[in-house]
Design goal:
- Helix content is about 65%, strand content about 10%.
- The chain has a three-stranded antiparallel β-sheet with strand order 1-2-3, with no helix packed on it.
- Strand 2 and strand 3 form a beta hairpin.
- Helix 1 runs antiparallel to helix 2, helix 1 runs antiparallel to helix 6 and helix 5 runs antiparallel to helix 6.
- The termini are far apart.
Length: about 350
C-alpha cells in the first residue's frame, strides 16, 4: 500500500474512511399471496360441503330428540290413565270384599266366595302401586329429556283423544329428498370426492406472488442516517417433481373413503325402504285398533249407563255397577293404548320421512 507524501513536511499522509457505523437499523416486511392453486379452490368448495353435512346432521339429531320427547310425553299421559284405572280397580275390589264380608257375616255367602273376593282385593293393591310407580318413572324420564330437575313438580296438560290421520305411503325416493340423515350422507360423499380432487392437486403447480419491503439505516449516533429503502416484487412457480409416492398414496386413501361412504349410502337406501314399510304397517295396525277400541268404549259406556239405570230401579247390585264401570275404564285404557302406539309409530315416521305434521297442529 503506497500512501501520498506531503511535499512540505516530507511525511506520509494517511486519511481514514469508516467502513462501518456503531448503530445499524434494518426492517423487512414480506407479503406473500397465492395467485393460483387447485388446492385452495377445492378447499373452498369442501368448506361449503362440510357446512351442508353439518346442517343435515344437526337437523337429524334435533328431529330424533324432539320425537323422543313427544313419545315420552304421551307415554306419561298413558301411564297416568293406567294409574287412574288401577286406582278404580283397587277401590272396586276392596269395596266388593267389604260387601262379600258383610254377606258372609250374615250367612248369605260361603267362605269360598269370601276368600275369592279377599284375594282379588289384596292383589289389586300392588297393581295400583305398580301403576303409580310406572307413572312416576315416566315423569322422571320426561324431566330428564327436557332438562327439568327431578325434584320439581310438573303438571301434564294434554290428551290422548286427538291424533293425526293415517298418512299415505310414500316412496323411498320421496323420503330421500327430505330425510336429513340420508342427505348428510350425500353431502359427505361429495365432500370425500372433493378430497380426492384436493389430493390430486398436489401433482399440479402453484403460483405465488410476493412483495418485500426493506429499509436500512446506519449511524454512529442514535439517528436514522444513511438510510436506504427497497421494494422487491416477485413471482414464484412451484412445480412438484417427486414426493416419494406419498401423493399417490393419499389419493388412493381418499378414494377408499369415497367407496366407504358409497356403501353406507346404498345400505341407507335399503334401510329407509324397510323402515318406511314397517312403520306404515305399525301405524295401520294401531289405527285399526283405535277404531275397534273406539267402538268398545261406546259399547262399554252404554252398558254402564244401563247398569246405572238398573241400579236406580233396584234391578242390579252395587257390584254389577262397579264391574260395568271397570269394564268401561278398561275399554278406555285399551283405546288410549292403541292411540299411543299409533302416535309412537307416527313420530318415528316423521323422522323417517323428514316431514312434520302432528306437532304443528297439536
Amino acid at each position: 500500500i503506497i500512501f501520498p507524501i506531503n511535499p512540505l513536511t516530507g511525511a506520509e499522509e494517511r486519511t481514514l474512511f469508516p467502513i462501518s457505523f456503531k448503530n445499524e437499523y434494518a426492517m423487512n416486511a414480506v407479503l406473500r399471496q397465492t395467485l393460483f392453486s387447485f388446492q385452495a379452490g377445492y378447499a373452498i368448495q369442501a368448506a361449503r360441503y362440510l357446512n351442508k353435512l353439518t346442517t343435515n346432521t344437526y337437523e337429524f339429531t334435533r328431529q330424533q330428540v324432539y320425537s323422543g320427547v313427544k313419545s315420552a310425553f304421551y307415554g306419561a299421559l298413558l301411564q297416568k290413565e293406567v294409574w287412574r284405572v288401577a286406582q278404580d280397580s283397587e277401590k272396586s275390589a276392596l269395596d266388593n270384599y267389604k260387601d262379600i264380608k258383610f254377606k258372609f257375616d250374615n250367612g248369605i255367602v260361603s267362605e269360598f266366595e269370601l276368600l275369592q273376593s279377599e284375594a282379588r282385593g289384596q292383589s289389586s293393591i300392588p297393581e295400583a302401586s305398580r301403576a303409580k310407580r310406572d307413572y312416576q318413572l315416566s315423569l322422571n324420564n320426561l324431566k330428564n329429556l327436557v332438562g327439568i330437575p327431578i325434584e320439581e313438580e310438573i303438571v301434564l296438560t294434554g290428551s290422548l283423544d286427538r291424533f293425526p290421520a293415517l298418512p299415505e305411503m310414500i316412496s323411498p325416493e320421496e323420503a330421500y329428498e327430505t330425510r336429513a340423515d340420508y342427505n348428510a350422507l350425500v353431502w359427505e360423499k361429495k365432500l370425500r370426492e372433493k378430497n380426492v380432487s384436493a389430493q390430486r392437486a398436489n401433482f399440479y403447480p402453484t403460483l405465488e406472488g410476493s412483495a418485500t419491503y426493506t429499509y436500512t439505516a446506519a449511524s454512529d449516533d442514535f439517528a436514522l442516517d444513511n438510510d436506504n429503502a427497497n421494494i422487491i416484487l416477485g413471482l414464484s412457480l412451484n412445480i412438484p417433481i417427486f414426493s416419494g409416492g406419498n401423493t399417490i398414496a393419499q389419493v388412493r386413501r381418499a378414494s377408499a373413503e369415497v367407496d366407504k361412504v358409497t356403501t353406507r349410502l346404498n345400505d341407507s337406501k335399503r334401510t329407509i325402504q324397510i323402515e318406511l314399510n314397517n312403520l306404515h304397517l305399525q301405524m295401520r295396525e294401531a289405527f285399526e285398533r283405535i277404531n275397534a277400541g273406539q267402538k268398545a268404549v261406546i259399547a262399554s259406556r252404554r252398558a254402564f249407563e244401563i247398569a246405572e239405570t238398573r241400579m236406580a230401579n233396584g234391578l242390579a247390585t252395587q257390584l254389577e255397577l262397579k264391574d260395568s264401570r271397570l269394564a268401561m275404564d278398561q275399554a278406555q285404557l285399551g283405546y288410549y293404548s292403541a292411540i299411543f302406539d299409533y302416535l309412537n309409530a307416527f313420530f318415528a315416521w316423521e323422522v323417517a320421512t323428514g316431514r312434520k305434521g302432528f306437532d304443528n297442529e297439536y
